[in-house]
Structures are given as structure tokens and as C-alpha cells.
Write a structure and sequence with these properties.
single chain, alpha+beta, 3 domains, 9 helices, 5 strands, about 10% strand, elongated
Length: about 290
């Protein structure tokens, strides 16, 4: 609005209306809609036709929001109809398909079920292998590394440090982290007495793979020459562990789209999970991706 109170359009710069109600702008949306629609019908390339159709739908929604009139029939639209048109062609931020949002995406829900199924299998295999080690909490371990000693004030040299397994991060074990993930935590005698370890004075988290190799061979294993003296009985996982998994937002980052593994991967375990659950790789096979 100018200093004398006259409304001036920011699109055509004429007075008497603003850009939101500008007839020239509405005509431009309609013209581009027709151009994109004609282009989509003229091409034989499916992906190209989808792109033109997407842009045509975008121009249609803008025109109908401005005029509250159907761009095809010219009839007046109700408010719910213009709002519904936007959702119909909305692009999902997870799978890229149109017509729904990430919150209602069936592909996301299916992928989470596949994740839980594979994690259940991974945990079952983890527990079977771990039970064979007999290395429960309280088992003694030693590592041989270059360090300044447990206190951190000794000469830097290669020496052996002794400690004890004090914790197992059961919650971190899933289909993405199982045999090779460091989930066994140990503390040195110095730490158990309340001391804080110096540089490389502690014991790194140990994976099931390294733990198993050390127990089976009876000799140091892994890059830190881990040696294990099993207590004789493996520790039990917490109650409900087999069915307690991370939330979907923690498994699938809300800021990231669908992982390649779930959309295109041919992993045998994932295929077996889908078959067992009776779900397809894509829940919207007839819907084109948005651009």
C-alpha cells in the first residue's frame, strides 16, 4: 500500500488489488498449467511426463488457491477441496512418493517392521554366540597396548592392563550393530577403585567377535591383544529385550530420506523379513516419485 492509501499489486504493479488476488498472476498460473499438461501428454518418456505432471499440478494448486475456482471446469470450489488438492500431490520426505506425508508413510512403517524383524534375528544369534563364551559381567580381561599406565603418569610403553567386564550395552544391539559393535565395557582395577584413567589407560569397548575369538583361542585377540578369563556363565539380557527396540525416529533420521538399503538393496535377510511379514518393498508401486 502506498503512502496515500492506494493498494498496488506487487506482481503487475497495477493499483486496486494485491498480488494475492491479481488476475494477471492467476492467468499466468493457468497458462503454465496448460503448457505443462500439454508437454506431459506429448512426451513418451515416463519420468519426463511425471515431472511435467508435477509442475502442472503445482500451477493448478496455486491458481485454485487464488481464484477458488476449478481450473478444468471453472466451477467454484469449497475450501476443503482446495486444501485437499495440496495434500493429494504432496511429496513424502521419506520415500519421495506423492500423495502422503512422512507421518503417514506406509513405506516408513514397513521398513521399521523389517528393521525390528532383522534385529530380532540378530539378537537371537548374538545371544546364542555370547552364551557360548561364558564371559559374563565380572569376567577378568587384560589388554596389552602402548600407554602411560592406568594412572597416566608412567613412561609411555607397551604394557599389560587388567580389568573386569562391568557392563553390556544390550540396547545398542540390533541388525545394524551386533557381532562387530563394541558393547562389552570393562574397567581397570584402578578405575574400580575410583581412579580416572590416563591416556590409553583404560580398556576399549569390546565386540562380541573379539570376545569370542579370545575365549575360543585362549590367546590374546584383536588390535589390543585382549585376553579373557570367563566367569563361567554369561549374563542375561534385561526382560523384554527381544521386543524392545529404538524408536522409529532414532532408527530413521527425520532429516534423511529412505535409506538405499531399504529402497533398492537386495540383502537376503531383508528379503526374508519382507516375505515373513508379507509386505512389499514399496507400498505405492503405482505412484510416481515427486521432483
Amino acid at each position: 500500500m502506498s503512502y496515500n492509501g492506494t493498494v498496488r499489486c506487487g506482481y503487475c504493479y497495477q493499483t486496486g488489488h494485491n498480488a494475492r488476488t491479481c488476475p494477471e498472476k492467476a492467468d499466468a498460473h493457468k497458462r503454465r498449467y496448460n503448457q505443462y499438461t500439454d508437454a506431459a501428454n506429448a512426451t513418451s518418456d515416463t519420468e519426463e511426463a511425471d515431472r511435467y505432471a508435477y509442475h502442472a499440478q503445482s500451477e493448478r494448486e496455486k491458481y485454485e488457491r487464488m481464484t477458488k475456482t476449478c481450473i478444468v471446469t471453472g466451477e467454484k470450489l469449497k475450501r476443503k477441496q482446495t486444501a485437499g488438492a495440496s495434500l493429494k500431490k504432496m511429496k513424502c520426505s521419506y520415500c519421495g512418493k506423492r500423495g502422503h506425508t512422512r507421518r503417514t508413510c506406509q513405506n516408513l512403517k514397513n521398513d521399521y517392521e523389517v528393521y525390528k524383524y532383522m534385529s530380532r534375528v540378530a539378537r537371537r544369534n548374538f545371544l546364542k554366540q555370547y552364551n557360548e563364551t561364558g564371559a559374563g559381567i565380572g569376567s577378568l580381561v587384560t589388554v596389552e597396548t602402548w600407554n602411560h599406565g592406568a594412572t597416566g603418569d608412567l613412561e609411555y610403553a607397551e604394557r599389560k592392563i587388567m580389568g573386569m567386564i562391568t557392563e553390556i550395552n544390550w540396547g545398542a544391539i540390533d541388525c545394524n550393530n551386533h557381532s562387530d559393535a563394541g558393547v562389552f565395557f570393562s574397567k581397570t582395577n584402578y578405575q574400580l577403585g575410583g581412579g580416572r584413567p590416563g591416556y590409553r589407560g583404560g580398556i576399549d569397548a569390546t565386540s562380541l567377535c573379539t570376545l569370542t575369538n579370545a575365549v575360543r583361542s585362549g590367546v590374546p585377540a584383536g588390535r589390543n591383544n585382549l585376553q579373557v578369563y570367563p566367569s563361567g556363565s554369561a549374563s542375561l539380557p534385561p526382560a523384554g529385550w527381544m521386543d524392545d527396540y529404538r524408536a522409529v525416529r532414532e532408527v530413521f533420521d527425520p532429516k534423511q530420506d529412505r535409506p538405499w538399503f531399504y529402497e533398492y538393496g537386495n540383502d537376503e535377510d531383508a528379503e526374508a523379513a519382507r516375505k515373513a511379514l508379507g509386505i512389499e518393498r514399496c507400498a505405492y508401486p503405482d505412484v510416481a516419485r515427486g521432483y
